[in-house]
């Protein structure tokens, strides 16, 4: 390429457009920093709680799968995710989308795919396996989980918020959970107009008990917000205390979907603010715990059934 005449240094090319590109990059870096500062202020975290963690975190799993960190093998991270977001193992759901109509939804995964005219009794549901979780985390598919287990128990509870005030309401709910030292995580939607707050238990607990605690935290969150209600609150998952014989119960989109994490949003399933618990390499608090993505976390020991009984509103 010929060097333009009039250049002050004939050995270099003019930096045409680089100033604009540099300004755009600076703005791109500044934006998430400002968002992080805003969330930290809303959560009222101390400098000690907000400081970066060490390279390896100690998880709360005493046995398998153990802690994971950024350098852990992919298989170890998948096992960790499977333990953290443990759900009904004999069935899962996948997201479908009709490009022509724009419609989308979830449907149970069945062997051979869904075909018209096949009786329900002849459909074989596909189980929730590590291969399926791997595909979800890598972005090859979008997965939904069925939280209700045998005996109507669940490993976790998720509160769903949707609407313009969703993030602030979810943060209030998260703060209420932190007040009672509940292990909690915030997941924000790609639009910023929705989110889930996840509560984790050390072992499966009755769904009815978990939902009572979730309802109690709503009352505390209302007090935190200083409002009459949380307008963006939608529902709890699981959405029922028991599931009918032969039924599946409600499903919820699994977090940390691969494409969502790469794009910094949820399609569905990326986390921001405080993110999933137990043994992540990015975290903060006296017991540094977290999920499998590169997101900040704060949590304590997951609640056991005795803890939950003490938190049920009178």
CATH topology title of the domain at 49-73 and 149-311? DNA primase, PRIM domain
Radius of gyration: 22 Å
Main pleated sheet:
4 strands, antiparallel
Q: Can you count the helices?
A: 8
* Helix and strand composition category: alpha+beta
Mean pLDDT: 77
* Assigned CATH architecture of the domain at 49-73 and 149-311: Alpha-Beta Complex
Strand portion? 15-25%
Q: Layout of SSEs?
A:
Layout lengths: L17 H26 L3 H4 L23 H11 L8 E5 L6 E5 L21 H9 L4 E3 L7 E10 L3 H14 L4 E5 L5 E13 H19 L7 E5 L14 E2 L4 H6 L41 H7 L3
Antiparallel strand pairs: 1-2, 1-3, 3-8, 4-6, 4-7, 5-6
Helix pairs in contact: 3-4, 5-6, 6-8
Detailed description of the structure:
By secondary structure, the protein is of the alpha+beta class. It has a domain at 49-73 and 149-311: DNA primase, PRIM domain (Alpha-Beta Complex). 31% of the residues lie in helices and 15% in strands. The chain is built from 8 helices and 8 strands; from the N terminus they run H-H-H-E-E-H-E-E-H-E-E-H-E-E-H-H. It has a 4-stranded antiparallel beta sheet, covered by helices on one side. It has a 4-stranded antiparallel beta sheet with strand order 5-6-4-7. Strand 5 and strand 6 (194-206) form a beta hairpin. The longest helix has 26 residues, at 18-43. The model is unreliable at 53-60 and 266-300 (pLDDT under 50).
